[in-house]
């Protein structure tokens, strides 16, 4: 009788662990090599394993990733089935430190259906060894040997040919999926503004009112950054015709790449959204300076983009007069 109870208890634990595993996403980080020379490039692969309905926000990366210098940031590759979602991004980095260089855990924010709040999943930690170049000072100097040309055989080219065909098929599949997604009916945008008031004036007034409420001074940092980004999302929707309230931070920045030519304005918006995401989803408490800077940058973003739109409107009006 006792054996049956023990067996039943162990079975319950196994079922529970499998269920939890299926619900919680995994963030894996791997490198294409673990032993490199100082200054050499290393490709880090970030892989998100979750459910098919997850809405994931990848960390916004700048010039560095922990102790590493970022050389190149690849696109996000998506693999999705009825139940599973796999997202991959390759980031090329280097380091000019020697010895073991540790990459800390990186937070990923994701949203899931039937939940009103977002969740945070942390990536694995990673350590790479960077070695110095060993010089043999006792050896004689030698001439540099020229490259040796070896004829390429068909067997050597075959993997590249098959790889190219595979990439072409993958691109076709992605294009088909994107076209199907565009055909779906989009969720209507909830109007949160007065169309009779210019977008920049309404946004600046809303930012001023938010500043006067002194929300973050009362310790309500999450509400402050949520309200601030909502004001900017409404402004972005009005001037760029983007459904910003339904997009993640990464998706907003991606949409603006083709609509806002000013790198400075995009950089300002990226910093605002990055601090807001960390505050809202990663339990990050910004400093007084960061709270103040977010408001200052929001006003600067509106003023910079407002000037561009006014210039375009003026140029359009001038062209219409000349045509008449």
Describe this structure in a few short sentences.
With 324 residues, this protein is α+β, with helices and mostly antiparallel strands.
Essential attributes:
5-stranded antiparallel β-sheet, 11 strands, disordered C terminus, 3-stranded mixed β-sheet, 3 domains, globular, alpha+beta
Description:
46% of the residues lie in helices and 21% in strands. The protein has 324 residues and is of the alpha+beta class. The strands form 3 sheets. It has a 5-stranded antiparallel β-sheet, with no helix packed on it. It has a 3-stranded mixed β-sheet with strand order 2-11-8, with no helix packed on it. The protein is built from 7 helices and 11 strands. The protein is globular. The relative contact order is 0.09. A hairpin with a 7-residue loop joins strand 9 (107-111) and strand 10.
Mean pLDDT: 81
Strand order within the widest beta sheet: 1-3-7-6-5
Sheet having the most strands:
5 strands, antiparallel
- Low-pLDDT windows of residues: 11-22, 184-190, 311-324
Question: For the CA atoms, what is the radius of gyration?
Answer: 26 Å
Strand segment tally:
11
Beta-strand fraction estimate: 15-25%
